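FORM 12-B: Structure-to-Sequence Request
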């Protein structure tokens, strides 16, 4: 089988696509892949390094003032011509888009040329690229009930995020071993994405002082940009507060910690539900269409997470909520149980089955 996979711009689009590619390669090593992305964004750096065949499209989003939008629309039309050339050369059995501007171009071109097409929506709110493609594609895969209801029911399936399969099948370590924490100590992790958050850091600086000398350890991820400043401001805290710029093995930490405090990115929530992580979620309010809050509310509605909006975040109230959960194992177990019930650990397998159905198993 020959498959074109496309994603662009952010890890939230790219890493689920790569997770599916890895799974299919394990199932059928003879499958040929071509990854179509941009010429200058994140995927153009990381995908070729992984040994995948890669083609970059010069394409921009329809943003900015009217003149800029018009220019970008012309660029998009040119990218459609480039996409059709790629399709003719590679001749795929199916084209799968995971979001981002190049995904719009290659999937739309594939639809126009009669190739089988599929899109994947990671968030509860449908992204602009997928809105453009809804009527054009053969099948749609989504991760949230809110998105499922918004897409055409006859060609949409709620199968989850491929990253859920990666973490559920991986070899996971114990957070106590990773950070040299006594095995009888409870552990919570606070992480606001890989970049961190200046707003949340300001609140956590006070909150961490209040959480020092409690009967649990805290892994606090500042984000690389803020690490040196936060490390200096928190230098008087005890060894139970671990100030970190980044966590390399987040799935292991999410699997073995007692409580996680995080943003509500699609990949993060897919991993936490697959692992059954008890969590307090602080959605980022700085994302398109406020989709993180909608992502989070789907978990909260099922009793699978506790929600704190950033505008309501303050040190005293935060520590009070944390203590409620850290001092009550039953409350944590209930969050964990309900999160696990929402998980889609077989997402890759289920999506691959749909690909085989669409292509006739070629």
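FORM 12-B RESPONSE
SEQUENCE OUT:
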């Amino acid at each position: 089988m020959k498959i074109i996979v496309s994603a662009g711009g952010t890890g939230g689009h790219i890493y689920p696509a790569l997770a599916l590619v890895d799974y299919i390669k394990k199932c059928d090593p003879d499958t040929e892949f071509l990854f179509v992305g941009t010429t200058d964004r994140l995927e153009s750096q990381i995908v070729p390094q992984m040994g995948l065949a890669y083609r970059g499209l010069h394409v921009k989003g329809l943003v900015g003032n009217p003149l800029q939008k018009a220019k970008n629309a012309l660029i998009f039309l040119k990218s459609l011509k480039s996409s059709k050339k790629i399709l003719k050369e590679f001749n795929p059995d199916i084209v799968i888009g995971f979001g981002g501007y190049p995904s719009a171009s290659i999937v739309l071109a594939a639809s126009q040329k009669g190739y089988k097409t599929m899109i994947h929506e990671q968030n509860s709110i449908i992204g602009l690229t997928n809105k453009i493609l809804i009527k054009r594609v053969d099948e749609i895969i989504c991760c949230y009930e809110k998105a499922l209801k918004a897409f055409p029911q006859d060609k949409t399936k709620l199968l989850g995020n491929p990253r859920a399969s990666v973490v559920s099948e991986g070899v996971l370590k114990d957070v106590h071993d990773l950070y040299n924490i006594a095995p009888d100590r409870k552990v919570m992790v606070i992480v606001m994405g890989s970049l961190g958050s200046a707003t949340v850091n300001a609140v956590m600086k006070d909150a961490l002082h209040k959480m020092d000398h409690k009967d649990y350890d805290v892994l606090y991820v500042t984000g690389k940009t803020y690490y040196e400043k936060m490390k200096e401001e928190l230098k008087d805290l005890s060894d139970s507060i671990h100030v970190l710029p980044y966590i390399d093995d987040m799935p292991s930490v999410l699997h073995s910690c007692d409580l996680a405090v995080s943003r509500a990115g699609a990949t993060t929530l897919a991993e936490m539900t697959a692992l059954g992580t008890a969590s307090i979620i602080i959605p980022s309010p700085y994302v398109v269409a406020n989709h993180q809050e909608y992502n989070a509310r789907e978990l909260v509605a099922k009793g699978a997470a506790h929600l704190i909006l950033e505008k309501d975040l303050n040190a005293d109230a935060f520590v009070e909520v944390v203590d409620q959960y850290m001092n009550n194992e039953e409350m944590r177990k209930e969050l964990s149980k309900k999160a696990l019930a929402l998980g889609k650990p077989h997402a890759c397998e289920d999506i691959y089955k749909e690909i085989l159905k669409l292509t006739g198993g070629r």
